[in-house]
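pasting for ref
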Amino acid sequence: GPVASPPWALAEADAGFPLDLASWPSLEAQIAAIADDIAYDNHDIDDGLRAGLFTLAELLDVPLVARAWAAVRARYPELAEARLIPELVRDLIGAMVNDVLAETERRCAQIGSIDGVRRAGRALAGFSAGMAAQERLLKGFLYARMYDAPAVKGVRLEAQALLAGLFAAYREDPTLLPEEWRPASGDPVAALRAIGDFVAGMTDRYAVRRHEALFGPSPLHERF
């Protein structure tokens, strides 16, 4: 938040369980959001290197990463580069977390209550301006070399088609759902909710198996 014009699903949730959408989120929610960014950034560095989507040399074009790498190499000059990648990720996480702690403490210096958090008019938990700029450069690199990489986009399109096919099949014939997931009433909204919840809870491999049971071999089979 704040959310001035919530989409229909969020508006329905707010009607049933008031979410104070006009105000800023609680400090706990803000911390969870920035922690999520930190986790994604750093675990995706590790995943991208392991998948061969980019090399360490290419990653070191990102200034934040280059500084952390220099510190890691200085501490462990005798170790091979491959063994230092986990240490690099730990250092980056630590640098981001420490920055958030210091910046959030600074922003909260004059805040004395939960209402003060919600009325602050801006996020209180977050990166400093300097770290935010550095993190944007890292995220830009990851978007260009990982999230939007042709190989990744190809798998994403295949996965989207697979999930859309599953949803359409279950919507056409809800008896294809496992018995415990079949909607108890004829309410179409309840049926869509049940299908959505069932599909959302699938692992990659389970989704591929369910799709193959309905439609035959999937191009994603070899990947999972």
